[in-house]
Amino acid sequence: MAARITFLRNEALHTVKSGYPGNKLFGSRFANGEELYTPEFSNVFRWKFLTENPQKEEKKADTWAPEVVSCTEFLRGTEDGLVWLGHATFVLRTRGTTLLFDPLLFDSAFLKRRHPLPCRPEELTGIDFLLLSHGHRDHLDEASIKLVARQNPQLRVLSSLRMAPLLKGMAPKLAVQEAGWWQQYDLGPGAPLEVYYLPAAHWHRRGLNDLNKVLWGSFLIRTQDKLLYFGGDSAYANHFEDVERQFGPIDICLLGIGAYKPAFMMQLSHTNPHEAAKAANVLRAGHVVPMHYGTFDLSDEPASEPIRTLQDVAHGGMLRGDLHVPKVGEVLRWQEWE
């Protein structure tokens, strides 16, 4: 019997896209727009046991990792800035408000960092908002959530539909606000910024029985007359056009460029460098900051290939915005960018 179709959103929040009924559910499972996406175990088996990586030797020889500088002074201060901590983890400070995106601060049995963190995890204090794009373990790490929650009792979490039970199992006192796609979070009166939860083409799974039962997505932050887009994890899809149509040109895009090979395994989950450039161009981005590369070994491409490819795209005039390739821990003065 076909799954019952319903729609879900947070009725307490404003939906900015006219006529949008909420996120589509097939039974209890969220969809990528109109279509239910189910990752195939056969693809994992094919990748791990039946496919030889044609770049195996090149990957083995490629020991490149991003350069790292300390961001301790920035974290202790009050100045505005944007700092990449590696992978998809960023700290954004604007008008006295500090946001932390998708923190992954520790190694685990399956995720080993290829470069140091640019600060001690204990230095991540004074965080006002924790933005969690989705529930995959390289974006939502339990040890990191527990530490950040313990160090920041004032913290408020902005995340997706059905995320609160998962987070409260890690840190019961966390204040969690859930949103569906195209919804604006309620930050209270006088907030110096606006935050929206927007679509992504991805999926959710942490255990055996929770496939697509928690929503995934991206974020848009409006502050200081600039729009900053954090793409989370996403394949290339038409939501980039929808975001541009809704909000106009984006000033700064943080987009994933790594974990794209083999394509049969990764193309419905992540953008490769060419697709990320296409997404940035569709968004009419003035500035592009790449992420989701160089920190962890998640796929078959050599470590330096994603950023080398994106730089070639930019140097060839195929990226309309300015490309910024920061060191891990480097402070980007995004508020000064034209």
Automatic annotation (TrEMBL):
It comes from the Bacteria. InterPro entries: Metallo-B-lactamas, NAPE-PLD, RibonucZ/Hydroxyglut_hydro. GO terms for cellular component: cytoplasm. Residues 98-293 form the Metallo-beta-lactamase domain. GO terms for molecular function: N-acylphosphatidylethanolamine-specific phospholipase D activity; zinc ion binding. This is Metallo-beta-lactamase domain-containing protein.
